[in-house]
Amino acid sequence: QLQEQQEEIENMMNAVFKGVFVHRYRDVVPEIRAICMEELGTWMRSYAASFLTDGYLKYIGWTLHDKQREVRLQCVKALQGLYCHQDTAAHMELFTSRFKTRMVSMVLDKEPDVAVEVVKLLTLMLENMEEVLTEEDCQSVYPVVYVSSRALASAAGLFLYRRLLDPQREAGREPSHDGDNRIFFRLLLAFFIESELHEHAAYLVDSLWDCAGPRLRDWETISALLLEESPAEGLVDRQEKALVEILAASVVQAAEGQPPVGRGPAKKVTGL
């Protein structure tokens, strides 16, 4: 009897979905399309057994191409709610393979607030779906740490930290303050030198400040690395120069607490 009632309810839900949602998710009014995507994400989280399937997920994938900012934003937020848990992310393999290219391309979305949420989404995918993002996918996100929007650069900074710079990302490694920070700075130097944007150390530091500020303020480890003379442990000239630039940018950031020139929200004009 319970099974029959459950089937009856699911048939009713399916009729409502086909009679209302399927028509309204393409409504001419952007707000209605956005509400459809928001609610579909809610249904998938609250009733995964029925709604977290490729037959429903495809609607979110298609709507990632919507021309209106708020609709794309609701699609990305709905996906964040699914990729943020490993148990729901496990149902997303086919969807990911079909729509990952679109999601990665949206890092360059013309609307900065959409791009911020996309980078956060990719960070969740990085954390909850093993090996789903290729190195090529990640290379699309790394340069964003140098953009002028602080919110977007900070989101990319967290992605970069989790993917490349976190010394404890290797499973089973015992944390060790000095050792970890040495590893962090060596990884950071490798990234900074390879990105060949040395005049922008302040932007890189600012992007990482929220997620790796305590490491960047570890003056003791930075000094030890700069003073190390052992050929095995010491830095080559190019690394030393880059580390001095990072040190200078970190000191300025710690002292002033302000993002570098050209980054951050526009300042309000006070009274003349």
Automatic annotation (TrEMBL):
One of its GO terms (biological process) is establishment of meiotic sister chromatid cohesion. Transmembrane segments: none annotated. It comes from the Eukaryota. GO terms for molecular function: chromatin binding. GO terms for cellular component: chromatin; meiotic cohesin complex; nucleus. Pfam families: HEAT_SCC3-SA (PF24571), SCD (PF21581). Keywords: Nucleus. Residues 21-106 form the SCD domain. Belongs to the SCC3 family. This is Cohesin subunit SA-3. The lineage of its organism: Eukaryota, Metazoa, Chordata, Craniata, Vertebrata. The gene is STAG3_0.
